[in-house]
Amino acid sequence: MTTDIHTLVIGGGQAGIAASEHLGRRAIPHIVLERARIAERWRTERWDSLVANGPAWHDRFPNMEFDGIDPSAFAPKDRIVRYFEEYAAKIAAPIRCGVTVTQASKTAEGFRVETSDGPFTCRNLIAATGPFQRPLIPEIVPDTLGITQMHSTGYRNPAQLPEGAVMVVGAGSSGSQIADELLRAGRRVFLSVGPHNRPPIRYRSKDFVWWLGVLGEWDARTSKPGQEHVTIAVSGAHGGRTVDFRDFAHRGMTLLGRAGAVTGSTMQIAPDLAANIAGGDANYLATLDKADAYAAAHTLDLPEEPSARTFPATPDCVTNPVLSLDLKAAGITSIIWATGFAPDFGWLKAGTFDAKGAPVHDKGISATEGLYFLGLPWLTRRASPFIWGVWHDADHIAGTIAARMPVPA
Ligand SMILES: Cc1cc2nc3c(=O)[nH]c(=O)nc-3n(C[C@H](O)[C@H](O)[C@H](O)COP(=O)(O)OP(=O)(O)OC[C@H]3O[C@@H](n4cnc5c(N)ncnc54)[C@H](O)[C@@H]3O)c2cc1C
């Protein structure tokens, strides 16, 4: 039995739910297919203690607040899962969980979609399978060294790791939060810090997400030149704190430059730690400058915060960086790679993809008729892969589908 539906949404995370809301509002018949459960990645691909990076007033859909959470607090990941379950129920989203899409191909009328629950046909297909699909682990450290290695998607908590020191590679939000957690748990931690931005979590009484909004940065269409591979280090953990890697070092963490090749058990470390810390500082200070200029231009009565411009002393591991590290001699028994993700659209036999496997589209609209994407980084702007940003992109995609529907005779 083939199920025919006007629009099929693949993926039941926040993007799929947002798509369902906006399709439903336009009375567009649709089904959402989710291979596991609603918001599955928040359940099983993230660590136990994770909380949202943005406060609850911001990291949500516009039509529903987090019940029982202070809007200025950071929702724990289990609460985020419940939020999306409640949201899907509120809008009566037609989600079928436990259905894996194995292949989708173009037909004259639309698409034929093979799934673990039989074939579907549809006129429109919205791929909402996530901004972060296939975990990337650089092949640097040979298995023969006997060091436990995992991607940040596999990390749960400190007790999961064998005794001994831990190296965390990557100092974006995931790497910096995991390294901090391990340090607090009493582990010896080495953190490899690449180029990063680190906005203040709060400045002059306003959250950084608020500043990014008023400064127009959520709406940036593309990353700034030279910033394409610069990660962002923010954390809602412990009530939300600005990430400053010098603090980590003063609490006992060893900061390293970018991780390089391993010979025997010795890893080469790039001599870029000080430059990466300086780059993070420059970004941080630029954000404060822009915020101050905005406050002055709009005569906002916000408390001054000169202390935000004072940094901790530069730690010895930055001044005298480690340039090669014998992993075994340092007692490192685990490495956590917080090194990002690659796209994985192997199931989609339609549309065009670039050399890295990312789909070619214009604001989520493919040149292939009826094919749409949602939730991808920079889909329409910086906010696109985040909770509130994807909701607005879903409106745009559903609106496009509605506008292209044949007018009834
Ligand atoms: C560690 C971490 C912390 C984050 N914290 C925040 C935050 O605080 N605030 C914020 O706004 N954003 C945050 N994000 C970014 C973003 O909100 C999340 O990545 C979010 O999960 C993206 O939602 P999505 O629906 O686009 O994709 P996903 O959550 O990845 O959902 C896609 C769904 O598609 C399903 N699927 C995939 N392939 C198939 C298939 N072939 N057939 C059927 N189903 C399939 C998957 O099971 C999955 O449930 C964070 C991301 C990470 C990695």
Quick synopsis:
By secondary structure, the protein is of the alpha/beta class.
Question: What does this entry look like structurally?
Answer:
With 409 residues, the protein is of the alpha/beta class. The protein has two domains: 193 residues, FAD/NAD(P)-binding domain (3-Layer(bba) Sandwich), CATH 3.50.50; 203 residues, FAD/NAD(P)-binding domain, CATH 3.50.50.60. It is built from nine helices and 22 strands. Strands 1, 2, 3, 4, 5, 6, 21 and 22 form an eight-stranded mixed β-sheet that branches. Strands 8-19-9-10-15 form a five-stranded parallel β-sheet. Strand 9, helix 4 and strand 10 form a beta-alpha-beta unit. Helix 1 packs parallel to helix 9. The structure holds flavin-adenine dinucleotide. The site of flavin-adenine dinucleotide (FAD) has 33 residues, from helix 1, strand 2, helix 2 and helix 9. The site of flavin-adenine dinucleotide has 33 residues, from helix 1, strand 2, helix 2 and helix 9.
